[in-house]
Amino acid sequence: EGLDGAPEWPALRAMLPDLKDLRVVDLGCGYGWFCRYAQQHGAREVLGIDVSEKMLAQATAMTSSPNIRYQRADLDTLQLDKTYDLAYSSLALHYLSHIEPLFTTLYDALKPGGMLIFSCEHPIYTAPLQQQWIVDDQQQR
Q1: Which of 4, 14, 43 is nearest to 26 (CA)?
Q2: CA 43, CA 70: separation in Å to the nearest integer?
Q3: How does strand 45-50 pair with strand 23-27?
Q4: Within 10 Å of residue 70's Cβ, how many Cβ atoms?
Q5: Strand partners, 87
Q6: Using one digit for the tens of pLDDT, what is the confidence trace for 58-104?
Q7: d(Cα 66, Cα 11) in Å, to the nearest integer?
Q8: How far apart are alpha carbons 120 and 116 in whole angstroms?
Q9: Is-contact 20 41, C-beta < 8 A?
Q10: Beta strands per DSSP E along 2-124
């Protein structure tokens, strides 16, 4: 279902600026759903980044616009050589063990007034199971 099948999409969409003529980077782009959305809503240039070769192959197969480019990269070591108006990421940043280097990279890559819009899973879903047992045990007391 693409973006419409993502429960977080309405909230993220409400935060988006007008995309006309923006340079956009999608971190953890998966199948490129947001990349294509941004291009269809006027983005001048879109870079989709993902670590999965299979997802990028599918994104490429689903994309016909020359304004969208896909790149395989690990967000833990990402370097961006251009400046962007918008950095977007849906349900990817919580996989990073150290997010500070990525935030530094994005700070340097965003133009003045640029935006980072992202979602991540709630820690209750990403916490190791052992920690969840501790929480459950304390709640029962």
Answers
A1: 43
A2: 15
A3: parallel
A4: 21
A5: 25, 116
A6: 999 999 999 999 999 998 888 998 899 999 988 767 666 778 887 88
A7: 28
A8: 13
A9: yes
A10: 23-27, 45-50, 68-72, 84-90, 110-119
